[in-house]
Specification:
Blueprint: H1 15-23, E1 29-34, H2 66-71, H3 73-88, H4 94-108, E2 112-117, H5 123-127, E3 132-134, E4 137-144, E5 158-159, H6 166-170, E6 187-191, H7 206-215, E7 218-222, H8 229-241, E8 245-248, E9 259-262, H9 266-276
Parallel strand pairs: 1-2, 1-7, 2-3, 7-8, 8-9
Antiparallel strand pairs: 4-5, 4-6
């Protein structure tokens, strides 16, 4: 059995210690994981947050499942299209822009950096992030429901912009659900549903995320409720390796004793971090 090298976990730290850690040796290999909270300032409601438009606050999360799609694919598509439409009009906020600049600074210093987002919006890409894994999929892609179709799992997708939703909007029904142009199977959103696994699609790059979690020296969560598989897996690896973990959460929620919580808004704290980086 491989012996895991134990590292000391420092006592809970504040903002200045976080900024120093990011600039210093611990910042030589950074993993950042963002959740819906990072996009809230851009006007996109969260799933589990306390904002009035939070999806769970409206008791509709059962629609984000494969089971619901199988039962009512037209209703599933229309629900997602309404949510996607709101996200498409959003613009990156200061947190997205700061994360992209942090990545560029890390690259100039020859330091490792990976940004993993649970969000399906495209705000990180719009802000300029490139070392990016969208572990829950992306709203700008659909995919075929038939496995091994070139447009479907395990690795295929189909551009959402190429999908004709006219018939579905005009006459919502199962028969109006868009079809794959290659095999005529139903198309679905390219998102990880609540009753699916990360292994469903290679684009989720879950093994890449775990690899970086095993090799990073500093892990930062931004705007996440720690209620999904990726946060649990990365948090557990960080605890096992005893490396510093920070969570930027304005509500100040403490997800685990080994996570240092910074009760700050990401759109305010992350630009401060970038401004503190030496040129």
């Amino acid at each position: 059995m491989e012996t895991v090298k134990r590292r000391h976990v420092p006592a809970p730290q504040g903002v200045e210690e976080f900024l120093a850690a990011a600039r210093g040796p611990l910042g030589e290999a950074v993993l950042v994981i963002t959740g819906a909270g990072v996009s809230l300032a851009s006007g996109i409601p969260t799933f589990r947050g306390t904002d009035p438009d939070a999806v769970w606050a409206n008791d509709v999360t059962e629609k984000g499942t494969r089971a619901f799609f199988k039962r009512a694919p037209d209703e599933s598509w229309l629900w997602y299209l309404r949510r996607f439409e709101r996200a498409r009009g959003a613009k990156p906020n200061a947190a997205h822009l700061a994360l992209a600049e942090w990545e560029r600074w890390q690259e100039r210093q020859g330091r490792a950096f990976l940004l993993v987002t649970q969000n399906v919006d495209t705000l990180h890409e719009q802000a300029g992030s490139r070392a990016l894994v969208k572990v829950h999929g992306s709203l700008d892609q659909a995919r075929c429901t038939r496995r091994n179709c070139a447009n479907g799992p395990p690795r295929g997708t189909y551009p959402m912009a190429a999908v004709d939703f006219g018939p579905l909007h005009a006459h919502p029904s199962r028969d109006a659900v868009p079809r794959c142009p290659l095999c005529q199977s139903k198309l679905r959103p390219h998102v990880l549903w609540f009753d699916e696994l990360y292994a469903e699609h290679e684009a989720y790059q879950f093994e890449r995320v775990l690899h970086h979690a095993r090799n990073s020296r500093l892990i930062v969560f931004v705007g996440t409720s720690f209620s999904v598989g990726v946060t649990a897996a990365v948090s557990a690896l960080a605890l096992k390796r005893r490396i510093p973990v920070f969570s930027i959460d304005p509500a100040g929620n403490q997800p685990a004793s080994h996570i240092h919580v910074l009760a700050e808004r990401a759109e305010e704290l992350l630009p401060r971090l970038v401004a503190s980086l030496p040129s």
